[in-house]
Amino acid sequence: MPSLDDDGGGGRGCPRPGGVGSEGGELSAPRLRVDTPERAGLDPEEMRHLVRDVVDFTCGDRPWAAGAVVVAGRGPVIAVQEAVGWAVRYSAYDPRADAGVELPPEARVPMTVGTPFDLASLTKLFTSVAAVQQIERGTLGIDARVGAYLPDFRAAAAHDITVRQLLTHTSGLRPELPLYDCRDDAERLGLLRAEAPIRPPGTYLYSDLNMLLLQQLLERLTGRTLDVLVHDGITRPLGMTSTCFGPCPGAAATEDQRRPWAKADRGMLRGVVHDENAWALGGVAGHAGLFSTGRDLAVFCRTLLAGGSYGPARILGPDFAELLLTPPGLGFAVDQPWFMGELAGEGAAGHTGFTGTSLVLDPATDTFLVLLANTVHPVRRPPDNAPRALAGTRMATAVR
Asked: What pTM was computed for the model?
């Protein structure tokens, strides 16, 4: 199966005021608390191995990542919450030496458990939740044709692409378009409107364009922009105050983004969108753009594991939270050992992001694992999912 990674980036600014969240009524789902692995029903030795592995991922002259944060737990308990390495380690990338230009120690920025990360494609999960919220309300049909909502998107309408196909990456649309090379928003929108599938709809092909079309549909349907939908419908009611579309100045650094290895010449990036298309779209995009912390993403995972509720807030009903995670998943990938390791196999769901981010939640064991790393600092390299898979295997072993 192809990688779920894509280039990911920032957005509008964090935090953002306003909005109204749903209340859960008389029932209240337990909030997360920090406690020992034993209290969480996890093997403490395997949890120590997990932390040790994450440390190893950031060591050496050419580490997997300059820095990382891991947050893992079971039920309402966070059993591991650790930060290692550097949020900012390099000032630039030297292509002649194929190495980062190290900052002096006093100029580096250490990673903390509160460091925000450019989530990259984890943004797709929030776009998917926003869509399923509309499905739950009855304002959006999961098997409705996209053309019924976006008749001016002629190619999608002509090929009868459905909402479900966007959510499951079975529209047949190509992985991406060079929106970053367009002159203005009108030209970018024109490309999206005219883009026809390159494979028959119903065929799996992972594509950023699915979430870009879904963004257009949601904004047309609700009259609100995606950043407002995510804030008002997800992050604000859940108290995810560190999750936002950028800019996010304190975030972990990403890439020294220059051609020919990148698609734009922007220099060393920190706290601004990494994904070139999301950048071209102004930072708020259905496929990439959010920043968040490990703790906030643990809340997101816990909410879905608890059937859509967290504390007194409810962002989805249990049936619709389950719908997101039911194979093949709506936005989520299900049972993918290439990044979940041995957590895959009984309905574990999650996603990865090009910048080095990932999360996995496992309803069968009521566990969650968030691993955030800046693997593209100072430059993008071929994806290596072995560290993610190893972390998933550690988690699965800790449960057993």
From this structure: 0.94
